[in-house]
Amino acid sequence: MISEFIPFMMKSSLILAVLFTAASAASAQAREEISGPVAAEILRVVDGDTVLVEAQPWPQQKMEVYVRIRGIDAPELKSKCARIRDAGLDARQALETLTANSPKIQLTHITGDKYFGRIVANIILSDGRSAADNLLMAGLVKSYDGGRKPREVCELN
């Protein structure tokens, strides 16, 4: 009986060790952050909370990357609801206007995003203003912590 119990305990210990290592690695990866600033130039406003930039993380090194603005969520441009689509267009137009006089920006608190090839970062305009704060104060976007989004209800007027 004991001879059967020892291999079982060894297997259980090994499985727990592997699970703990995997969980620790995933947790560490989720916390990886570059504090910045990283200089970048806005190439295109995609929607009310995403821009395409050419970032310069090192001297003489440039790369194009999509940046989700940290802390905000804009209404979806592809929503089935016309009211939400219109609000999304307003948010995108406001971000275009906001960044038109500030093509050179700084990216700070940079992390990976749930979508490969996109990052999440604070965008600081050339005059020191936060793009997210400006859009929030204008009431065009909602505060967003990266979690699950509430379902939008389309109200017909």
Elements, N to C (H/E): HEEEEHEEHE
* Percentage of residues in strands: 25-35%
Which architecture of the largest domain per CATH? Beta Barrel
Q: What is the highest CATH level, the class of the largest domain? A: Mainly Beta
Q: Percent range for helical residues? A: 25-40%
Give a description of the structure.
It is a single chain. The chain has 157 residues and is an alpha+beta fold. It has two domains: 1-31; 38-143, Beta Barrel (OB fold (Dihydrolipoamide Acetyltransferase, E2P)), CATH 2.40.50. 36% of the residues lie in helices and 31% in strands. The chain has three helices and seven strands, in the order αββββαββαβ. The chain has helices at residues 2-31, 82-100, 131-137; strands at 38-47, 50-58, 61-69, 72-73, 104-112, 118-124, 142-143. The strands form two sheets. A five-stranded mixed β-barrel has the order 1-2-3-6-5. Strands 4-7 form a two-stranded antiparallel sheet. The longest helix has 30 residues, at 2-31. Mean pLDDT is 83; it is low at 16-29.
Features of the shown structure:
two-stranded antiparallel ribbon; OB fold (Dihydrolipoamide Acetyltransferase, E2P); globular; 157 residues; 7 strands; alpha+beta; 2 domains
Secondary structure topology:
Layout: H1 2-31, E1 38-47, E2 50-58, E3 61-69, E4 72-73, H2 82-100, E5 104-112, E6 118-124, H3 131-137, E7 142-143
Parallel strand pairs: 3-6
Antiparallel strand pairs: 1-2, 1-5, 2-3, 4-7, 5-6
